[in-house]
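To the wet lab folks,

You asked to see what we're planning to order before we commit. Fair enough. Below is the target structure as tokens, and below that is the sequence we designed to fit it. If anything looks off to you, flag it before the synthesis order goes out.
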């Protein structure tokens, strides 16, 4: 998206963290990532200052319905914004990476199996577009 992005991440083992400790660690890691990205862009473009307007938001995915709707929300966001008409047209999305056979660090198998394979994944997104 031109003015924001979505990340859907999984913390592998939540059991070793207290809620506040986990939130602080996640916040700190994202802060480091954003600072590093900002420094790189600022150096490349000869500028200074922040690139980001607000702090990031995080939401716990704690049920299957939310998991499904979040996948759809992320992939349909460029369509809803009027940037493209189909999910596969947005080159910055994980949608095409999930469907490709190229190597990826995404949990491709898990996501595709959630939708009963590639065809189910595509069909689900097409149905969501048609409902919008």
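Sequence we intend to order:
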């Amino acid at each position: 998206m031109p003015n924001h992005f979505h990340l859907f991440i999984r913390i592998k083992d939540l059991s070793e963290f207290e809620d506040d400790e986990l939130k602080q660690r996640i916040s700190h890691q994202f802060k480091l990532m954003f600072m590093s990205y900002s420094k790189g862009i600022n150096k490349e473009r000869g500028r200074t200052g922040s690139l980001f307007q607000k702090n990031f938001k995080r939401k716990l995915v704690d049920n299957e319905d939310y998991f499904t709707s979040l996948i759809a929300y992320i992939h349909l966001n460029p369509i809803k914004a009027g940037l493209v008409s189909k999910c596969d047209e947005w080159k910055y999305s994980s949608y095409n990476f999930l469907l490709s056979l190229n190597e990826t660090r995404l949990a491709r198998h898990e996501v595709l199996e959630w939708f009963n394979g590639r065809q189910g994944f595509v069909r689900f997104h097409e149905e969501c577009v048609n409902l919008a």
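Structural context that might help your review: The first helix runs from residue 19 to 45. The chain has two domains: 18-45, 64-131.

Thanks,
Computational group
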